[in-house]
Amino acid sequence: MIASTCLAYLWTLQNSHLPKLIEVTPHVMKLSEIRTKFPLTDFATRHWLGHARAAGENQERLFLWTSKFFMDKPFIKFWLGFRNAIDEWPQALISNYGRVPALYFASLAGLNRSIELLLDSGAKIDAGSIIGRSALQVAAHEGHMELVMTLLDHGATAKARNMRHHPVGSGSHITALAAASWNGHIQTVQLLLKHAPDIDAGAGCTTGPSGEYNFPTALWSASFNGHLEVVQCLLVGGANVNAYDWLHGTALSAALSTAHTQVSLLLLQWDADIHTSGGDSHGNALCAAVFGGDLALVENLLQRGARISSHEEEYETALLTAVEVDRIDLVDVLLSHYTDIDRKVLDDALRRVRSTTDRRVIKTLLDHGANINHPRTHLLHMLCEQGSLQTARLLLENGADVNNQLNQDRNPLITACQNDRLDVVMLLISMGADVNHNNSEGVSALQMAFIYKCFEIAGYLLKNGAQISEAKSYHDPPLLTSCNCGNFEMVKMLCEHGANINQQSMRNQNALEAACNHGDIAIVQFLIDHGANVKMCDSNALTVASEKGYLEIAQLLLAHGADVRGGSPYKTPMQAACYGERIQVVELLLKNGAEVSVTAFGYGSTLNNACHTRNTDMVDLLLNAGLDVNAQTTAHGIWYGCY
């Protein structure tokens, strides 16, 4: 009933409602517009085929509608337009569907009467096979055995090959046999084997219209999914147990990597080669077994003489895989079968360690001779970055160089500071880390801590001998950073450890200016008390305080001799205060002798700035103080007020 209703809805939509809408609509309606105006479109499009499959075509009403659908190409195209949009399939798949025969969809749903109707009407039984969309391929994929039998009786080609891989349904399998094997449809597989299918199709590349594709064989597909009966059936039917392609490898590697023990043992009984490469994903059978994680299978392969590593191939070794899957039992059993320790393999395995790796795995590798200080091993840096304290301790206790540099860029201590790992910093220093080491840019651990505002770490470094550098760099000096952040305790600590209070950054900003910018009068007072030069000729401290309206800080600076004209040729305190609409600060500056009419390059006059803010009180204050209303810079004050 539901399937019939859905088809009736879509049919009426296509043949009745849309033509009427198009007559009165000057543009071609988009699918999204149709779906908005007819909200049941999505449901009908998505679900009619599934409901038809469940109901079967014994109901005459349903067969009436399915036969109408499958015999009408425009209706199928109309339906597919919606289905593609709803499922958001890639454009390549949509274009492929232009060649998908109606027989495919009838077979997908197992609609036998519709298939008979289509065949009687002259439908080509193998149509769509080149794109994996033939009736036989999809019937095998879905396990419709009776339908497969019907199609074969009508002459469907069992060995027809898919030449254009795509991931949907039967399109990802090279033949009907491979599709049935993937899903474990044993009766369908047995039936297809009686019709001389290409049993090893998929071993190697298949060349299609758009290039080469790698499909798995039927045996690989069944092995990967653990379908023991199907595997047995294929082997008895003559499948090559060692069929191989570079992407998928062999059936044995597929079974081992997915830990299908019984299938793996069966393949071994049929003399599957344990030394053949496992394809792009696994180095060999042993690697695949380790990846699958079945210890008994790993031991079985080792007893059969499986190689633990092979440098003849550029693939994973079993030991590397064991480290990747983080299994100490697998690492132990593999290392117990080494006759001669391969240092390179051990070093490579150590580089696969992650911060979450079982420390027993790491300890075992180190005990067997892995070089923790190998130039390509950056494990300690990674642990410092991620804060893996106990694992970092393990490495250091086993000989890791605490000052090892990473590409001349940073050492473990700098890395820990950069990532705010105080506990790791404490560990590194306790193990002898050089607290005053600089990286290639001249940045020390202390500077790095300040760059990333890790003040707790910075304090710990200072207490443990870190020196405050006065060398110019692209980064602000520690004291300036602390002032910018308003960290009074750190400011005091830096001064206690000899920081130069008047040191300037590359932008010529000093600590006093930074403190004024932050607005912390306690820090400003502290800096002045400890020798900050308020009268520096290029200091912008008063200008910054004036623009931000920090009246008390401005008073403090002026009381200690700050130049009321400021220290910048580009902006004076008066201009800054006018621009910031700080009337009280303007009054303070005027009382302390500031010129009422000030012009500085690029920043306009005091009148310009006051008019620009449209602050009439500020303008009145300036005029009452004797400002010349006709004073001009690059822009006239009155013009600004009218703008």
From TrEMBL:
Domain of life: Eukaryota
Keyword Repeat attributed: yes
Keywords associated with the record: ANK repeat, Repeat
ANK repeats: 131-163, 214-246, 380-407, 408-440, 474-506, 507-539, 569-601
InterPro entries xrefs: Ankyrin_rpt, Ankyrin_rpt-contain_sf
Pfam families to which the protein is assigned, alphabetical: Ank, Ank_2
Membrane-crossing residue ranges in chain numbering: none
Protein name: Uncharacterized protein
Species this protein is from: Aureobasidium pullulans
